[in-house]
Structure formats: C-alpha cells, structure tokens
C-alpha cells in the first residue's frame, strides 16, 4: 500500500513539480495551498508524512506545525519544512517547534526524495 | 615660538608674518597704536567689528583670529577622540591635553582629523541605515522571496524534464510551460529588484538624516533668507529657495525646510526688518518687543537671530529635548549628534512653559566664553482639547562681555565637557582632569 503524503505549498508550479516527483517515487500525494485550513486538511488525510512550506497565505507553516505537534496523534508525524530563508534563526525556530527536517529553497528533487525516504522510512 | 591660545597673540603673529607695522595696522582699523599694543598683548579683549576689520587688514578669516574658531576646532577634536576611544587598542591614546598645540601648530592636520571624524560618523550612520534596511525592508524581503520561489519551481521542473526518461508528452508540455512562466516571472522580479536597488543607490550620496540636511541648510544661510525679507516675498520665494538649495536632497528634509521657511516668512511679515531694528534701539527686551509687535516671544527670539548674522545663535527643541533648529555661533558649540548640555537655559525653559528665562552662561575653556541666553517654551498649535499639548522651546544666544559678575557654567555635551562635579552630568567625559 502506497504511503500518503500531504504537500502544503501555495506556489502552484512548485506544488506541481513536487507532486510529480513524489508520485513517480510511489507516494500517494494530496496538495493544499491555504494556510488557514492546512492543519485540518492534514488531520483529515492522516498521512505518513507532510511537506510544509513556511510562507503561506492565512497562517504560517510554523503555526500549522505548532498545531499539529499539540495533537498527540500527530506529535510524531514526519514533517519536512520548506523555506526560502535559510537563516539560523529560522532553522532554530523550526527545530524548537518540532520539525523533523528543514530544507531551503531552491532544493534538488533528489535531495527532497532522499530526505522524505529517511524521515518516513523506506517505501514498501 | 610658544603657541598661544589667545586672540591678541595671534594678531601679533599674523601682523609680523606679513611684515605690517603696528602703527600702520592701527591706523587702518581706526584705533591708536597704544590700544593695538594692548590688544596684541592680550590686555584688551576684542570682538565684533574691530575683529572683523583687523582680520580684513591681515587677510585672514575673523574666526582664525578669534578663540571661537579654535574652541570649535578643539571641541571637534575632542569629539573625534571620544568617538574612537577604546576602539584603538594597542595604539597610543590621543594626547588630549595637547589638542590646543595641534590646532595652533598644525591647523591643517587638525582640520583633516575633524573632517575625517565627521565623514566616519556619516558613514557609520549610512551603514546602520543600510543594515536596517536589509533586515527590515519588507519590499526587499518580498522581492527575494518571489525570486527564490521562481528559482525553486524552475530548478525542480528542469530536473524533471532532464531526468525523467519516459516522461509523458502531456507532462512534458506542462513542465515546459511552467519553466517558461516561471522564467518570465523571475526576470520580472529581478528587473524590479534592480530598479529598486538602483533608486536606493542614491543613499550613498545622502548619508545624513533629513534633520542634518535641514541644519546644514540653515547654517549655510546663517538663518537669514533675503528673498523672504522682501515685501513681496511669499510661497513662490520659498519654493525657489528650496529648489536652489544644494544641501537639500531628501524629500523629508525639503518638507521640513518648507515648514521652517513658512514660519520664517510669518515672522518676517509680522516684524519687518526696518521697524524691528528701530524698536530694538529702544528696547532689547524680547518680552517688550513681543508686546510691541503682537507676536509670541519665541517669534521675537527667532527674528533677532535671523537679523543679526554672526552675532547671534539660535536653537529650538521639541519636548524630547531634540534640537530641531540650529544656527551656530562661534564659541557656543552645538553637538552634531546626540543630546546637548542639560544645563542650557533652553532646557530650563522647556520645563517651565511660557515663562521666560534669561541667563548669563559660560562655556568651559581656559578663558571661558560668555553668552547671554534668552529662552522661552511655548505650546505649538494643538489639535484639540483632548490631544496632548506639543511644546517647543527656543533659545537666542548672544555674545556677552567676558568680565564681571557670575555666570552659569554650562557645556556643549557631556562627552567632551571638562566640568567636574556637575550635577547634570549624564555620562563620563573623556576630558579627564582638564578645566
């Protein structure tokens, strides 16, 4: 059974590229672009991993992560944070809020696949 | 030759240097040779017209003869030393006690030190502004974010296109379209960013704040604007002055200068130069002049300053004590950045709104220069009964004879003030045991 992943990202062309490579890699991908409803969407999908962008309309990725981590059911969910800012304070904040991995844009497709395989365990 | 800090000695040195006889110089400025002799031996203090006449005959600037110039250069040198104190570890400290010697013997080098110190503070402020801008500029942040998003999408799509061997033609077309779209967006945002940074490039040419530009504008004019003294002077003359002022470049500074000139115009209309001069021969009391012309005492102080050239200085401050108007006068050193001496009558007036303050003050120095200061604090136009009142204090600074009676000791600003045991001191001085 394919593993499920939710991509929370508001740039349509980035979403499309990520979805494409993840699907080819065997993931079952669903996407979400709105920050305000993202936490809800993740809960409903109950995925095996999440790709979460920081800059989203409505709510930031940090706030969404905080929500998810506050819920025991999602406290251990693998989350890959994506941001266009790679400063130390951004990294530290992501760490503190419980991000599983942190990746700065632009990233290579191979890097992203590798990171997701590592944090979500090998695919069947 | 011993270096003397006194005006008389300097006149004598200069006269000998150009080979002029005492009697000839005395005749040229209309005084007796005996009197000139007293002056040259520092037995008579001079200033005003006589100093100007002597300077003209000796072909030097009056300030080169007066102590004011030396005091100003000295205080700038001390300020320069204060700014870098501690920064130059492992290097001999500047000989503060020999600053006068430097000014006397090597005025050119002293001037260079001061010019460099000024440039350094300007550049420091520029760096601060720029780093603030990089950290906090929302437009810059948004623009960079946009570019990074495009680059991310392009990189990802390009890699899909090149690395996916059996890619479906529909998908291929889709990613090609994405690449085209995102490259267009990337080039637009890059252009926008370049245009934005290009405009910002002007900043290197105007490192000063609008307040500093305004101060430079007022100083260059000596707080006297001839076109506004004409009976027909009005808004058009104000705009012409603003346009021709090369010290004013920042739009904020221009707006501030427009307000300042508007007020100047109102003062000049209410107190026309001719009648005002006539009234001043009858009384020099700012309060009486205010009554005679039906204006506020602060307007009278400004008006006197605007009509008396180098013989007066003027400062104004807002409720926070920040200087908002500054016309310098030789010997009364106005700090360029930061706060001034809290003992200035200006600040005494600030805490007692509407009550005039007149005081004889003395600046520190071997021969303390004395000034008669008139100050008053008035409310500025308010916006209503419920709004907080906004006050402004104004101080006129007039030279006073050096002898006779007690004077309040004041300074320029704490860092370069030698006065010990001053109750108003807010930070230590770099001047050590001087004064």
UniProtKB/TrEMBL annotation, chain A:
It comes from the Bacteria. The keyword Phosphoprotein applies. The modification 4-aspartylphosphate is found at residue 53. One of its GO terms (biological process) is phosphorelay signal transduction system. Keywords: DNA-binding, Phosphoprotein, Transcription, Transcription regulation, Two-component regulatory system. Pfam families: Response_reg. Residues 4-120 form the Response regulatory domain. The keyword DNA-binding applies. GO terms for molecular function: DNA binding. SMART domains: REC. PROSITE patterns: RESPONSE_REGULATORY (PS50110). Gene3D superfamilies: 3.40.50.2300. PANTHER family: RESPONSE REGULATORY DOMAIN-CONTAINING PROTEIN, STRESS RESPONSE REGULATOR PROTEIN 1. This is Response regulator. It comes from Maritimibacter fusiformis.
UniProtKB/TrEMBL annotation, chain B:
One of its GO terms (molecular function) is phosphorelay sensor kinase activity. It comes from the Bacteria. It catalyses: ATP + protein L-histidine = ADP + protein N-phospho-L-histidine. Residues 11-65 form the HTH cro/C1-type domain. PROSITE patterns: HTH_CROC1. Its EC number is 2.7.13.3. Coiled coil: none annotated. Gene3D superfamilies: lambda repressor-like DNA-binding domains (1.10.260.40). CDD domains: HisKA, HTH_XRE. This is histidine kinase. It comes from Maritimibacter fusiformis.
